[in-house]
Sequence to fold (867 residues):
Amino acid sequence: MRWTRKRLGLVAAGVAVVIAGLAAAAFALSGSADVVVYNGRSQYGDEQAFKAFKDRTGLKVELRGGTAPELFERLRREGDRTDADLLVTTDLANLWRAEEAGLLQPVDTPRLEQQVPAALHDPAGAWWGLSTRIRTPMRSTERVPADAVRSYADLGDPRFKGRLCLRTSNNEYNQSFVADSIAKHGEAQTEKLLRSWMANDPQILGSDVDVLDAIAADRCDVGLTNHYYLGRKLKDDPDFPVAPAWPSAGAHLNLSGAGVVKGSEHRANAVRLLEFLTGRQAQEEIVENSEFAANPDVPPAEHIREWADVKTDPIDVERAGPSLQAAVALMQRVGWT
Amino acid sequence: MDVAVRRRPSGWTVAGIAVAAAVLAPLLVLPASFLGQGEALDQIAGSLLPEALRASLVLAAGVGVGTLLLGGSLAALVSFYDFPGRRWLDWALVLPLAMPAYVLVYVLLGQYDGSGPFGGRLPEIRSTGGTIAVLTAVLYPYVYVLARGAFLGQSRQALEAARTLGLSYGAAVRRVALPLARPALAGGVALAVMEALADFGAVNLLNYRALTDAIYRVWYGTFDQAAALQLATVLVTLAATLVALEHFARGRARYHQALGRGEAVLPRRLRGPVAWLAPALPALLLLAAVVAPIAQLLAWAIGSLGEGASAEALARAAVNSLLLASVAAVVAVIAATVVAYAPRAQPSRLAGGFGRASALGYAVPGTVVAVAVYVPLAWLDARLDDLAGVGLLLTGTAVGLVLAYVVRFHALALFSVQGRMARISPSLDEAARSLGADRSRLLADVHLPLLWPGIAIAALLVFVEVVKELPATALLRPLGGDTLAIAVWEATKDSRFDTAALPALMIVAVGLVPVVLAIRLSRVGGFDGG
Fold:
């Protein structure tokens, strides 16, 4: 092949056309949105609700997914320059962290007040709850009797040596759980609890689903997960051999929620979306997902109805939030990988 | 008379130095991270470092020994023994190179975890041994390829001389052929260990707390950039030490070439049951590391198609991957051409030195490059926005990510272009210059037409590496800009195995292209010893 300047120009033009085409495709696929959501919830769970919002209002929602720390870091960096309108997270400590950093703005409407009980939103309106979830010990129904686990401390019982499954310590549910414990019981007490768990040589797995599967597959006897993961398993298979072991002193209750971003350019749309997400239609989907709705008008899913009545210990975010860093350091220190 | 007349540096020298410096600059940020607080490590970095360093060293040692034994013995087997299926294995044993470690981990975890076909009956791979085994399975080809090349270059006479001195054939291979191939073995092991140290996806998914994973955890766990930079500096020091060790070991041991004359070794024919065992074991390895995972991916992919997998998300990830990879390839090729051409346009020790130094990025793990690129860009971004109010031009978009790719893979492009340029006779340059062409015209009309195969290969290599790249992408991706690699990683983290099958298949398919090309090229050049 002979190369002349003309041919060189042709190749360069060809490459440019291909790149322009790809860029156009990327732009077309992302498109322009009427409201941009920084979404920390699983990319698959909630998409339906956002589609329904578009059908109802004609407003196009763009979801940008990431883990809560990624979203927080991005928001903090972007400041007033951000494209984001609404921040959605799976746990309250991360909303608190965003509020504390001045990244959220208060909003309040009669509809929001009516749809979300006072206990499930920030008094000033910086964040609003979408759903509640319990993080509780789980036990094998085949190998662990119902009364063997009555508290978080029981997971540290030496009888479960090598038979305890936990999720990684960089998971936000675990971090919030530990931070809340530090806030309520002090760091020394919490360290004792975690050290007793670590003394059981826990298997550290990648997700709550892995933990439940490991218990079912006889690789573990007990574990710690959010309640709705088991709810989903039981929905598919009522004989799934794992059951929650509710702590008698109250089970750690966390909140998935959302707040309007301070630098939002579409504040009205963001508020509308927030109202929609806490409204009946979207909340029913959350219940479908085995979570508990924030909206008191939407009852829990049939197959886990009695779980809604267990004694809970709601996260005290004003005190747990500031303990997040200490929680991460503590988990590091005791060797929770 | 050149000595007397000090010429002004040409535009090309300046451009070459500037481009090389731009590629090199982010890496200079790393040691600077220690300046802020004297010599002391940040508290977080200090508490994480001992464990992470130990984990990385154990991983390096394990993968080093593993790839040496596996790659070395496979190369010896194929080189010195003949058995059914040898010609086929000769090239097939290179294939695991196309399999990114995190894709293999993704498949293994999917099969291992509860709902998979083996639900809980495989040995635990979330362990030190499991991590080393997985990385060894995809990295041994580095040792295999280099050792195979060295064995092919050995002469029959050396082996026969050993046999006349009373050694059995097997002992002659062990005691003569293997030591002669030591430089090649060391080179292959060094490459494999560098890749193992740089790996992020596999160690992250397997919960192995190596340095790359620690950097990621610090970055997003505590938002402490100084600590992340310090850990990155430790990791890059480790990689640099390895490069230096390898260079040192090789520098003293070049004797394999002196024996390279004479006739090539004739592989000895194996007989009896051994003749069938010899191909069976490597075939099993390939089955486990390549065939079975691809079959599993296909099965999941078909399953997910049936369930109406999110076609839009897949299309977005694919377009993003291709776009990033093509832009990075174009930028890297232009940068490489400028850096390679500068010393040629006008000999300059400085331009040459900068050129060589700019290749350092390849020894630096993607996680480190990302951290190193981000910090100066974020600073620049804020200044730019203050000046012009343009928003976060560099870190809020893919610009930072593309720069990270170029820094990381500049060496790949540079070596391809330089290798080709070295084959263009300088007398051509002189002829063109004497006919009145200036330096730019010389490049456009003489060099580029002759360089194109090198440029094409450079672009291909960078393109493929970017599609496979995970660690830098995980840290710097623009939100909503998921790539194929990110899709696989995210889905594996959440145990959503079938949703990532199609992206994983696409990555493996792209990764196969250069491997298959290399196999074809080497076969033309007599790689299989026939």
